[in-house]
Amino acid sequence: MGRTSNKDSKSSFEDYFKRATSPMMTLLLLNEKPMYVYNLSQELEKRSNSTYKMNFLYPVLYRLQEQGYVSEYSQEITESHRTRNYYTITDTGKEYLKFMLGKYRELLKAVDTIIENGIADDADLAESANS
Q1: Which residues contact 96 (CB under 8 A, 6 or more apart)?
Q2: Cβ neighbourhood burial of 25 (10 Å; 0-12, 13-18, 19+)
Q3: Of the candidates 3, 24, 18, the residue with the CA atom closest to the CA atom of residue 101
Q4: The pTM is what?
Q5: Fewest CB within a 10 Å sphere: which of 51, 62, 70, 80?
Q6: Could you read off the pLDDT of 48-86 as tens digits, one per residue?
């Protein structure tokens, strides 16, 4: 009870990482151009060689909207008046993206330093970290 399998731990790590970075990834893509949800999802998957898949972008987008970092608009895409909702980054979102990218790089560098210092004496860990 209270224990998770190794498989659960591995998927949890990936889930937590994606949850933590998905707002940054979303804003990064929207900084290039307005996109709709399917387009965002496909672009994340394509740019990551199918490693970074996000199936639940709506909650991320809604949270970013509530925070004022993203705005939404509808655009008619067919003659039968079918519309698609597009999301675009706001000026406040651009500022927040800069902050997040800086903080991400700072934390990544710190984690890399900790890892390098921690595995320097362990050949097995060093080998797996480099593969």
Answers
A1: 27, 67, 69
A2: buried
A3: 24
A4: 0.79
A5: 80
A6: 999 998 878 999 999 999 999 999 999 877 778 788 999
